[in-house]
Amino acid sequence: MDALEAIFTRRSVRKFTNKPIEEEKLRQILEAAMSGPSCVNARDWAFVVVTEKEKLRQMAQANGRPAQPLKEAAAGILVCGDLQRAFGPAPEYWVIDGAIAAQNICLSAQAMGIGSVWLGTWPQMDRVENQRRLFDLPETVTPHSIIALGYPAGESAAPRESRYEEDRVHWEKW
Question: What b/e sequence results for 124-157 when a residue is b if at least 16 CB atoms lie within 10 Å of its CB, and e otherwise?
Answer without folding.
Answer: eeebbebbbebbebeeebbbbbbbbbbbbeeeee
